[in-house]
Specification:
- The structure is a homodimer of 145-residue chains.
- Chain A is mostly helical and 145 residues long.
- Chain A has a domain at 28-120: Orthogonal Bundle (Arc Repressor Mutant, subunit A), CATH 1.10.10.10.
- Chain A is built from seven helices and three strands; from the N terminus they run ααβααββααα.
- Chain A has a three-stranded antiparallel β-sheet.
- Chain A binds a DNA duplex (23 and 23 nucleotides) through helix 2 and helix 4.
- Chains A, B: This is MarR family transcriptional regulator.
DNA sequence: TATTGTTATACTCTATAACTATA
DNA sequence: TATAGTTATAGAGTATAACAATA
């Protein structure tokens, strides 16, 4: 009989946490798409509109934030613009640049979208305030880089 | 001076946690797609293959797990099957049903995919074991329903 | 009749490459 | 020449509706 080799695997606990996060991701994603659909938006449109509800951005910057190619942004902004939720403005400083900006209606939709995200109610409601605080701090540390 | 009104809004802290989870979701999603791409898989293909690496499933059940329409599953399984990662088997108990199952190669790819998910290393590595334990328990409670 | 899986269709998202207008 | 945005193209995911085989 040989003693079992002491393999240093990437950590059982870490894998378990990763799986749990995977489950949270799946649920969040599903509920985000649902909330978007209730506003007749796709997920990508909802994400872009939410970004623009904070501040106008050049098309290029939008692509970076959405982690996609600039050519995609053209179509998504096109669809939102045709619905009057977003508009393109010239950049006075550089005539090559177009600034995408949410319209007043766009900002309203973004606000409504944010509030209709069920995720805030169901899964988080089960936690006490202390637990939510603890969760907040752990998530902050995770994302701190 | 009037005392500040005691408005009971949907909870500032909860919104903050939801935003943090949104950030985690975005990062997890991006890194999952990246890991899938390294194996020449799309995200949807990777998710389906991961499900099948645990157990064979009827097409219908796969659609439910992936939260999409059954008609979509046909195409995703087609593409995985043409690469020899998945196969369709008859269900002895019900001849209408087709069981999708990962091949040996498919299970290997699923294992490699799981291990290549950077997410386990970078963001979680910053947490101590105690913190990972605390995070695990909080996530479990969140998902408990 | 109801259910399983598929096909047909249309739309959106996606990356790549080529184009235009500015810089 | 380099950059910002667009267009063209092709592949993949998605939902809807209609269909064949089986229950």
């Amino acid at each position: 009989m040989t003693t079992p080799p002491k393999i240093h695997r990437p950590d059982e606990l870490t894998f378990e946490v990763v799986d749990l996060i995977g489950a949270v991701v799946a649920r969040y994603h599903a509920e985000y798409e649902e909330a978007a659909a209730e506003h007749t938006l796709t997920g990508a449109q909802a994400r872009l509109l939410s970004l623009l509800s904070l501040e106008p951005l050049p098309m290029r910057k939008l692509a970076q934030r959405l982690r996609c190619e600039p050519s995609n942004v053209t179509g998504i902004v096109d669809r939102l613009e045709s619905r009057g939720l977003v508009e393109r403005r010239p950049d006075p400083a550089d005539r090559r640049v177009k600034l995408a900006a949410a319209t007043e209606e766009g900002r309203q939709v973004a606000r409504s979208l944010r509030e209709s995200l069920r995720f805030a109610r169901e899964p988080l409601a089960g936690l006490s305030e202390d637990e939510r605080l603890a969760l907040r701090d752990l998530l902050r540390r995770m994302l701190a880089d």
